[in-house]
From TrEMBL, chain A:
Ranges for region Disordered: 1-61
Topological relation to the membrane, as annotated: Multi-pass membrane protein
Transmembrane segments: 95-115, 136-159
Keyword Transmembrane: yes
A cellular component term, taken from the record's GO annotations: endoplasmic reticulum membrane
Protein name: ER membrane protein complex subunit 4
Native source organism of the sequence: Lentithecium fluviatile CBS 122367
Any Pfam family: EMC4
InterPro entries cross-referenced by the UniProt entry: TMEM85/Emc4
Family: Belongs to the EMC4 family.
UniProt KW Amino-acid biosynthesis keyword: no
Domain of life: Eukaryota
UniProtKB/TrEMBL annotation, chain B:
Membrane-crossing segments per the record: 903-921
Pfam families: EMC1_C, PQQ_2
Protein origin, superkingdom: Eukaryota
Protein's name according to its UniProt entry: ER membrane protein complex subunit 1
Sequence similarity: Belongs to the EMC1 family.
Keyword terms: Endoplasmic reticulum, Glycoprotein, Membrane, Signal, Transmembrane, Transmembrane helix
Domain Pyrrolo-quinoline quinone repeat intervals: 61-322
Entry's localization field: Endoplasmic reticulum membrane
Taxonomic source organism: Lentithecium fluviatile CBS 122367
Disulfide bond as UniProt keyword: no
Amino acid sequence: MSAQPPPPPQWVVDLNSPPPSKPKNSSIPDPPGYTASLTRKERAISSKQSSRKAPTSEEMDTLKMKKAWEVAIAPVKQLPMNAIGMYMTGNTLQIFSIFMVFSLFKTPVMAVLSLQKTFAMFETPGTSNRLIAVKLTYILTNMLMLALGIWKVNAMGLLPTTKSDWLAWEGERTWSERAVPREWL
Amino acid sequence: MRSHALALAAWLATASAIFLDDAYHTDFHYALLGLPKHDATFFQKPYAASKASLLYTVSDNGTIGAVNPKDGALVWRSASGPSSKGHLRGGDEQDTVVGAVGDRITAWSASDGRIVWESRADGAIVEDLEILEQEDGITNSDAKDAVVLLADSSPRVKRLDGKTGRAKWTFTDSSGDTPFQVSTSPTTVYYISLHSPLLGGGAKLRVTFLNPVTGKKTDSYTLSSEGEISTKDNILFAGANTAAPLLAWTDKTNRVLKVNIIGTKGVSSFNAPANVATEKIVLHAPNRVNSLAHFLVEYQTATGHSAEVYHVDLKQSSVSKAYSLQHLEEKGTFATSTAGANVYFTRLTAAEVTVVASVSEGILGRWPVNGSPALAGAYPVHGVSEVVVKGDVASAARSAVLFSNGQWALIRNSEIAWSRPEFLSGTVSAVWAELPEEEALAQELAEESHQNVVGAYIHRVKRHIRDLEHLPSWLQSLPPRVLGNLVGMSQETTVEDIQHDSFGFHKLVIVVTDKGRLAALDVGSQGKVVWTIDLHQFASDATFQSPSLKAFRGYVEVKDVDLSGSLFINSTTGGLLSSQDVKTTLPITTKGETLVTYSLVDGELKGNLGAGPSFEAVWTFTPPPGERIISYTARPAKDPVASIGKVLGDRRVLYKYLNPNLVLVTAVADSARRASIYLLDSASGELLHSAAHYGVDVSRPIPSTLSENWFSYSLTIDSASATTARGYQLVVSELFESPLPDDRGPLGALSNSSTVQPTKGEAAKAYVLSQSYQIPEEVSHMTVTQTRQGITSRELLVTLPASHSIVGIPRQVIDPRRPIGRDPNANEQAEGLAKYAPMIIFDPKWHLNHKYELFGVKNVITSESGLESTSLVFAYGLDVFGTRVAPSFAFDILGKGFNKVQMLLTVAALFVGVLFVAPLVRRKQINSLWTT
């Protein structure tokens, strides 16, 4: 075998045996904003002190309702951005505007379809009644998104709202008489 | 953005034009002259140093033109004259030809047809025209003078300067004779007239000698020809420009030929061959001063012809028979040609060309003629020829021959070098033929649509099984068709091709000429004449004046005033059908409709109930006092409308007033110089709209057309009216059910309507919008394009006689809703409406005829093709022209630039690529399954 390894360098020694974090009986106060690491005992004491009492179920329900309202309002928050996006894409039929309009239609419908799943985590016996209003609001806000989509489609001229859209189904009048020049016979 | 796109589309549509690669392929043009006249057709060098000669002629309708004898292409021509009497002469080694039609005497540059000088005879008709070849025996090397004979109350002979056309002298004949002809010899000008005695009977021939320098009368003599001659037509020949000018006539039975050498008083008589009845005698003589004084007399019988050659002895002033050419039992004719002093006669029959010299009867050259389908069954009527003789053998001969079927052909030795269908120049009526096969299919389909679903299905399966019998022949024809498609070979088209044409471009047009000749032209294959027949073979005793045609499924009906009843001709073969074979149906009315017919009777438009003429008039339209109806235009029988409304920019609808019974009546008041337009409902006779225009030149044509829910007409504004500018106006009016959008007028959404018994009180009247435009040229005829379903926007086709063209004006340009005095707003822009401009300049791209010059177009007819985008156009008159137009571009067919070979190669390359890549992908997939 080789010879004895050389003694470890000073920095290794320093690293392995850090200086005591705080002199036990130092009168020097800690700098502001410095929290000294606690010893195990202290930690145990502090944990005992900081553990608040568990929230009551009512508090939980209030919290869940708050969260549920946030989810319900979320589509409205996207509305201005979507509206600007729609306005900017113009009324021509392009692949981008078609995709955006398609997503405008798809998102609300899918959201409404997965309504129960979205709000399942907020569902508790205490909130279930109050959630109905939230769910209704959620549907409403999604409908607002849908309305934006419909407005866009209308602006693109894709909704059959005018008479010209039904012109093909209108027939030419039939005439009871037919008059022709004599030389045609 | 949308509006911009629409505006762009509208702008594109107005720029519709003929593509370079379509020109000369999808269209065709017969630049015709008319049937050439025998005495005014000749080969001549266009200038003295020219190597090749051109073929000059004046036709029976007064068109003067030059044709390249090499390929039959027209070199130049003048517009057809007002009179059928035309003369054309060209002096030897001159660069001009002098022609006279009506009262106009014109010298044309022989090589390009530019006018050198023109002289008008002030109402007198030019009776004859000759060139003074020699003067006092010396050939004039400068421009040779012309001698003309003017028929008037006092006939005149004039000598016109060859350079300027000014008269050098005038000789006036005040004896009251009927002028006949002038003839020249090197020393004298002879004026030949018919002296009719007061007591009637025959006419004497008077020959007056004129001094060519002064025009003074030097001598005259009279020939007693009372027994034979009563009119000019009895005179056979008065030879011109020869050393021995001849005057020949015959009696009414064509038994005796009498010949006088002009300048002498002696008359020689010869008897025609006695064994067969001679129908016609024609005298052929050379017209060169230095050629031998020999001539040929041709005796035509009902079935054959023969000839005799005579020699003139100038010293003794006698005529003697040299030899005779044997009688041939087939129709033929002779042509004279000269080479130096020698005279050659070319005998032309449908089967053979032979050349003999005038001095002896030995045949110098003989060529059997290779037949041509265009000339099948026809015989030569008259011709001119050029012969090359080396030693005693004629080495080459070419003859421009008019055949009895109206083809003007050039026979070069044995072959037919070209033939021009000159008979088409007399076309008076043309219709699009409807083929019987289409009808069979249409009938089957109609049957299916009327059955119940199961029955219709069984019927359809049966029909398809029956169609299987065509499969083998179809498979056989497939490879050549595919190859032809790929390589772009042009095949000979037949009627079969027309029946198997999926695009519907090969449509037959049946034309009838004023001489009673019927022909079928395939518009899809360069106007090829598919068949041609003479109607006289079906109605031998009839003389046709202005035959009219009407097309039915599979046959056409020919009517003429002189024809008792009508002839029914099969559209595909040209054969006669008996009246039992044809189904006489009234295709116009459908079930439950009351038929009203109307016609112009004694200046009034009268409508009758039913088809019979005996019914009482249910309505009468009488123009206001002082006005007379000049024409009326009905909506076409076949006028499909795709949309019953016009969609505005804001997507509202203006409903069109669509009445199939509209008729547009044009009336003029001559004294007030007013033109009035009346729009009538021809079922009830009710006036829907009227417009009056003042200061109109009522002698000019007022063409009009009516289609869908709009009509247009064109007027010439008189220069005499001080307030308005002189010019030509185009007026366009559009009819709507109501001025308000989204409103269907008083009738509302009612699907039935009647103008005779209106359901809601007064019958609904149309709301009319009109706009008028100044146009740069006079319009002689106008019509509208037709497509299969009426989806494609229409084009107004106007014929411009001044620039010899046909122009298709897009509908957007003449939309009466163009905003006036302001720029279009966004909605109007979305509709493609541009600001109203009072002047329409005809865009060069609108001209359908591009480089062709269309002379004398009388009528333009349009038809749908198999494709919705395309309408077929056919114009006739003097010229015959056919083309296709796609007013909204050819959106349903691949253009010529589409490379089918490249497409196939791409598909094949992709297929090969897939074959190579497929195993690689498969291996990769399997590997990925194993490695994970």
